[in-house]
Specification:
With about 280 residues, the chain is α+β, with helices and mostly antiparallel strands. The protein is about 30% helix and about 30% strand.
Length: about 280
Amino acid sequence: MRDEMIFVEQVHRDLHDVRWLEPAEIRARARRRSRRTSMLAAVAVLAVVSASAVVVGDRAGQRGVSPAASPPRPAAPVTRVEIPPAALLHQDDLAARAGLHLSEAGLGGTVDVGLSRCTTGRGSATRAPESWISRSQTVLRPASGGGRLGDVLLVQDLHRMRDDGATRFFEALRGQLAACREWRETRSVHWGDESVDVDDVHHWDVPRRDFAGDESLLLRHSVSATLGQADGQVRSGPDTTVVVRVGDLLSVLMLEPASEAELVRLARMAAQRMCVAANPAC
């Protein structure tokens, strides 16, 4: 009996030392695991389909079907899933000297070109489809010394869409640009010891279209801020973004500082790089 009590006390001590996960951490791990499971399942389906085609061919041969008796079937097109690093722009493609290079790959999500605040609450009619998987890179300028990082030179997000999602994304994007050609928002800023409301007017236009890949848009965004009638209006310089589609791939490019001619050149180079991973192949 004493041995049983010692065993029970040991179990209680061991349970007391166990670190139980917080609910938020459990949910986060579950989301990551479910995403990985979805990705592996998609890859497994592609593998099973390919293997099934091989098995059917072998069984047809065992039944004595002569190659001359049935015409050869065309090979099924290879479906690419992963986005390799080679599909991104290379540092040698940039006209300016590059410094630190950061890259990341993962599951997809929203393809953001800066219109999300405008489209929020405007219904699902212009809601763009989300990507399947993605790969991104950020290139900094050479460091200026003193342990400081250089400024951002290039940001590129590359997304793979499902089915005809890339084409539908461009359709939704054109609808969003039409609805958000000019839109307003009010924000509060601290001015001295008081809070002041600032009216921002966002302007979007598309100076160039279809200059690279299967589809492309050059987006120009500027903001004018009004700090009350007496203080007048301040207009910021435009931000320029390029969106390029090649097959089922979408690339979003931002260059600092940006000239439209250089962005167009980089977009055409990006379209060539994307060919190594696009479905269908270029």
